[in-house]
Design goal:
Layout (H helix, E strand, L loop, with lengths): L2 E6 L5 H10 L3 E6 L4 H7 L3 E4 L25 E4 L1 H9 L3 E4 L7 E9 L12 E8 L1 E5 L5 E6 L6 E4 L4 E4 L11 H12 L8 H16 L4 E4 L4 H14 L3 E7 L7 H8 L6 E6 L1 H8 L5 H23 L4 E3 L4 H6 L25 E3 L7 H10 L4 H4 L19 H20 L8 E15 L2 E14 L7 E2 L4 H14 L3 E6 L13
Parallel strand pairs: 1-2, 1-3, 3-4, 4-11, 12-13, 12-15, 13-14, 15-16, 18-20
Antiparallel strand pairs: 5-8, 6-7, 6-9, 9-10, 10-11, 17-18, 18-19
Bound molecules: xanthosine-5'-monophosphate.
The site of xanthosine-5'-monophosphate (XMP) has 13 residues, from loops.
């Protein structure tokens, strides 16, 4: 299989580089720069990309590479720090920029030599995104200057024969015009990739690997119904069928029909599904609790207890599977010994369930690739395209004490809102949309009578990363339909409000 190796020097855009490469249908992996020459040979890359990084190559403890990497006869592209590293390692000179004009940050007009394979077919000038305080005072022997800016003569360097290229800017970010084409050029013109990597290939390969590893062992998975754990379950079910045991814990704070939907989606596989009705346990422990953090903590702890009880019933299993995905792996230090991360959906897994090894079959996939794989495996859209749902579920959308009655009320209202959003075709445009049950009551009039019921809030946001989010400008008509449906059909709610606060200053969830 054609593979590109991305050596990680700590740059903030490393995931983006991997994204861009995979978007070209070329498989790649991000590995730490400490990877030895031997390991690199074993990896057998068809091209190597050095990422950017926060260091200065001339300082004593800065990350370096084995110069032997340039003799592997594998094309290299260095980005920012990676470019300076090429210069530094091959006999050039990199220094701190003495005058401010040689430091470049942000959008910079750049002129390209379009006879250079890296820039073939591109316009001769464009905007590139720079972020460097160091300067290549001397370019290594044999290299030509392939791009310049008004302030800097050597924005890109190239050794066409040895197929070594370096750019001081970041082609992977959207601010760099034609950046994607430059990466394409590196892959197709310089590495001669065929770009035929598909998710179907990945699926077959992942299934083979799971089978090889698991043999006739048994695998336990906490299935939350979220995208990652669902796709993980589907992949394992496809690979090892009845050796997979999924535990789905219903804490009574799921959305309407959620448990049934999850069960239905997996009905076609011959695997073992344990659906635990633990509503009484969770609701019992939540009685009288109003503090949001206490709610989260109780649910997290109780989940572990329930899971552990089930694991005990199931008996010894060799493997515990988790739906860890690539961004988590890269953030926790790619290639480092597998970090057993606390499952983001269930708030930590028991540390003393007895198993031999952790399986993370999605650990090399980005979120949208996980969805693609889910589709490839035949999971229904309602699971694959699902909006995120927090582990503590409706508990953090019910203000004040959580009761069964309030959970039922909110479940119905939330369902009606989601239904209206989907009917309006907005479900794919919104990142998250749900209802919140407040503990405020207000006076209303229904029929001939006065009501004194709860206020419900609708919340919808758009976001790329959930670190910041904008409240969604949902058309009034959709809000109106949702409001009418909810007040008419859900007992206990006589007033509906819409949350028009972004994050920050608010958060997505109300608690
Ligand atoms: P906030 O409210 O922090 O939410 O702006 C950002 C994203 O995280 C989700 N979220 C959680 N997910 N357990 C989870 O698994 C939690 O305790 C939790 N709290 C918030 C939230 O739904 C949104 O997608």
């Amino acid at each position: 299989m054609e593979k590109v190796l991305i050596l990680d020097f700590g740059g903030q855009y490393n995931q983006l580089i991997a994204r861009r490469v995979r978007e070209c249908h070329v498989y790649c992996e991000v590995r730490p720069y400490t990877m030895s020459l031997e390991e690199i040979r074993d990896f057998d890359p068809m091209g190597i990309i050095f990422t950017g990084g926060p260091n200065s190559v001339y300082l004593p403890d800065s990350p370096q590479v084995d110069p032997g990497i340039f003799d592997l006869n594998v094309p290299v592209l260095g980005i920012c720090y990676g470019c300076q590293l090429i210069a530094h390692t091959l006999g050039g000179q990199v220094t701190e920029a003495q005058d401010d004009s040689a430091r470049e940050y942000g959008k910079t007009k750049t002129y390209y030599d379009t006879t250079c394979p890296l820039f073939r077919g591109l316009p001769a000038e464009g905007i590139s995104w720079m972020s460097h305080g160091d300067y290549m005072a001397k370019v290594p022997e044999g290299f030509t200057l392939a791009a310049h800016s008004d302030a800097c003569p050597n924005v890109a360097i190239a050794h066409v024969e040895r197929r070594i290229y370096g750019v001081q800017y970041h082609p992977e970010v959207n601010h760099t015009q034609y950046g994607t084409q430059m990466i394409r050029n590196f892959l197709f013109e310089i590495c001669h990739a065929s770009g035929d990597w598909t998710m179907a290939d990945y699926k077959e390969q992942a299934i083979r690997q799971v089978r090889e590893k698991v043999q006739d062992g048994r695998v336990l998975l906490a299935l939350s119904g979220g995208v990652d754990s669902s796709v993980c379950a589907a992949l394992l079910a496809e690979a090892i069928g009845p050796q997979l045991i999924c535990v789905f814990v219903d804490h009574g704070l799921m959305r309407l029909n959620e448990g049934d939907e999850v069960e239905q989606a997996f009905a076609k596989w011959d695997m073992k599904m344990v659906r635990v009705n633990a509503q009484d346990r969770f609701l019992g422990r939540l009685a009288g609790v109003v503090d949001p953090d206490r709610k989260r903590k109780i649910i997290g702890e109780e989940f572990i207890h329930v899971f552990q009880d089930e694991a005990k019933k199931i008996g010894a299993v060799e493997f515990l599977a988790q739906g860890t995905i690539y961004p988590d792996v890269i953030e926790s230090g790619a290639g480092a010994a597998a970090v057993i991360k606390s499952h983001h959906n269930v708030g930590g897994l028991p540390s003393h369930v007895d198993f031999k090894e952790i399986l993370e079959p999605l650990r090399l996939l980005f979120k949208d690739e996980v969805r693609q794989l889910g589709r490839e495996l035949g999971l229904p859209d309602y699971l694959v395209d699902r909006q995120p749902f927090p582990g503590p579920g409706l508990a953090i959308r019910i203000m004040g004490e959580v009761t069964r009655e309030k959970a039922d009320t909110l479940r119905q209202a939330d369902f009606l809102f989601r239904q209206e959003v989907a009917r309006a075709g907005l479900d794919h445009q919104l990142s998250q949309y749900f209802a919140v049950l407040t503990d405020t009551r207000s006076v209303g009039v229904m029929g001939d009578g006065r009501t004194y019921d709860n206020v419900l809030v609708l919340r919808a946001v758009t976001t790329d990363d959930f670190m910041t989010a904008d409240w969604a400008r949902i058309p009034y008509e959709v809000l109106d339909r949702a409001s009418v449906a909810i007040v008419n059909q859900v007992r206990g709610i006589n007033r509906v409000c819409y949350d028009i606060t972004s994050k920050p200053p608010a958060t997505v969830e109300w608690e």
